[in-house]
Amino acid sequence: MAVVDQRCPRCGSQDIVDDELYSQSQLVCADCGAVVSEGLFTTTRSEETNGTDVRFPNIAESNKQPCRNQIKGIHRVRALGRILRLTFLMEETAESYFRKAYEHPNFINVSLQKKEVLAGCCILATCRQHNWPITMGTLTCLLEANPNLIGVLYREMVTTLKIEAPATSVIDLLEMHCQSYKLSPQDVPEELSETSSNLTKRGSVLLELATDAWLVTGRQPIPVLIASVFLAWQSLKPTQTRMKYSLARFCQIAKVPKSSIAPKRVKEFKEVLCKLGQELPWLRGAEVTLHNVVQMVDDILNFRLTLMQNALRSHEASLASETQLPLSTEDCKPGLDTENPTLDDAVSSEPDKDRIQQQGVVDPTDIVVVEGLSCPARDKDLKFSQSSALSRGKRSLFEPPSVTHYKIRRVQLPMKEVTGDEEISDSEIDSYLRTAEEMRDYVEAQEELDSSDEEI
Amino acid sequence: MESSNDVALDIIITNVVAVFRTRCHLNLRTIALEGVNVIYKPEYGKVLMKPRITASIWSSGKIICTGATSEEEAKQGARRLARTLQKLGFKVRFADFKVVNVLAVCSMPFAIRLIDFTKNNRPIASYEPELHPAATYRIKTLKATVQVFSTGSLTVTGPNVQTVATAVEHIYPLLFECQKPLCK
């Protein structure tokens, strides 16, 4: 700061400094504190002598400091990494993704909540790339955010940053999932305890079987995992004590959050196991029910490939025997519409003969042309697709459950036309007429209302 | 639509969305009071009319029609709607008719392994089982989106019917190689 060639009037010192008090600049003596002059309208001359130099680089900073929210986000990424016990390399990768994503125009103006979720998405992408099994459900719990929001942001982030994050398969998730079950001898009685590695081994075999039987594709992974661990636990030691435990109680003792979908998955698993268990030769045709199948799971899993082949063969054989029954013609012309009534009757008891030209294997040329892109009469179309779906479910032994349990769409009943000329029965008319009691009450009420009106 | 393997798949169009303009200001209250089958939602500033086509009418004169099952039906329904508005006393003109979206459903005769399908078509297909049971395949060139379910059903959305058909043809071979019938 240039020294003004003035002297302080009080002490005579030349040490006068330019002091900015708010917006008013004052010349103040540094020794005695006397204000030499104030309220000077600065001219360029005085600014040149009194003003401080502002260097250009300070105005246009090329290396931008990260803003507060970005720093918070980076801390969050690190914290998540620590919670999940990721390696240092993974934390670094996640952080770099977050930095890049944050500064991208797609995300810079997004709400703070989304930026928080973005941190989680970066972690998710990193984990997937390094084959570290983590589910979106875990992230939902950690971030306490809406899973749909996480999904949307994750997809956007992946496309924006152009990274490839292969999804983890359900079987990889199993090991991580098994570790969360508290079934060591310290936590539960000896009878019920099971090591995580045993559960993983048995569970992964069950999952492979389920994948082949179309129970896993398209389903939420966590209920499937819970079902497989539960069945693995029961089948590793199928004692009476363990068999008495339902899925809900099992989740309770293992301190795992319950799921409403898992019981359905358990049932589906057991149905598949029953189908295979039926083929066990030493049962000699004894009935395999959902209750006693768990004891046989061990054997079923050991020989599952052979059992599956046998099951398919016997299913084909049963279908072949059914197709011997006389049904309508075999031609697959567009005149299938006229055959629909017969198809409908046939479907309930036997599979329709038309569709099963070859046994078991799907023959695509069976599909009938239905006027390309137009919309045929809705009810015929419904029956056609219904019958084809049902028969496809019967055609092969293992199909995705939504094909076999085909939802019958509720047909809206046509609204009855009210013309006013309908017959009115005598009893109906009587119900409209007031009884003597009602007439008395009505008259009294009327009088009371009138009197209260007058008062008002 | 026949594809090259001589397989005939029925593509059923379930919805066609179209827009058009009437080039005149519309009084929504009049339409609500005098029109038939009308639902008026003043907070949205629009009106719904339903003779087989549901139309959302804005007071600026822009109308969005949904519920048709073909492009022709959409145009006819829109014209019918414009006629109804004319009868109510507005000086409507049928301008800028455009089909905006077509939604179709198709069913493959085989089940599909979604994880394999996603792996084979990595950046174009995305599959998150925790969020949605189907894999989404976006065809950028056609601007169409196909959702593939493990049962073999597809839902296709695109800007017009031809695009939808092309999209199904495009995706059929990719799906065919990812099917895995249980023959061991």
Automatic annotation (TrEMBL), chain A:
Q: Name one Pfam family in it.
A: Zn_Ribbon_TF
Region ranges (Disordered) = 319-357
**InterPro entries the UniProt entry points to:** BRF2-like_C (IPR054078), Cyclin-like_sf (IPR036915), TFIIB (IPR000812), Znf_TFIIB (IPR013137)
Q: Where in the cell is it found?
A: Nucleus
Per UniProt, which keywords does this protein have?
A: Activator, Metal-binding, Nucleus, Repeat, Transcription, Transcription regulation, Zinc, Zinc-finger
Segments forming domain TFIIB-type: 4-37
GO CC terms for this protein? Answer: nucleus
Membrane-spanning residues: none
As for what it does, the entry says: General activator of RNA polymerase III transcription. Factor exclusively required for RNA polymerase III transcription of genes with promoter elements upstream of the initiation sites. Contributes to the regulation of gene expression; functions as activator in the absence of oxidative stress. Down-regulates expression of target genes in response to oxidative stress. Overexpression protects cells against apoptosis in response to oxidative stress.
The name of this protein is: Transcription factor IIIB 50 kDa subunit
Organism whose genome encodes this protein: Umbra pygmaea (Eastern mudminnow)
Automatic annotation (TrEMBL), chain B:
Pfam families under this entry? TBP
Return the similarity comment. Answer: Belongs to the TBP family.
Q: Name one GO biological process term.
A: nucleobase-containing compound biosynthetic process
**The keyword Transport is assigned to this record:** no
Identify the GO cellular component terms for this protein.
cytoplasm; nucleus
Alphabetical keyword list: Cytoplasm, DNA-binding, Nucleus, Transcription, Transcription regulation
- Give the coiled coil ranges: none
Fetch the CDD domains from UniProt. Answer: TLF (cd04517)
Could you tell me one molecular function GO term of this UniProt entry?
DNA binding
**UniProt name for this protein:** TATA box-binding protein-like 1
What does UniProt list as this organism's lineage? Eukaryota, Metazoa, Chordata, Craniata, Vertebrata
What transmembrane ranges does the database entry give? none
Q: Which PANTHER family match?
A: TATA-BOX BINDING PROTEIN
Q: Where in the cell is it found?
A: Cytoplasm; Nucleus
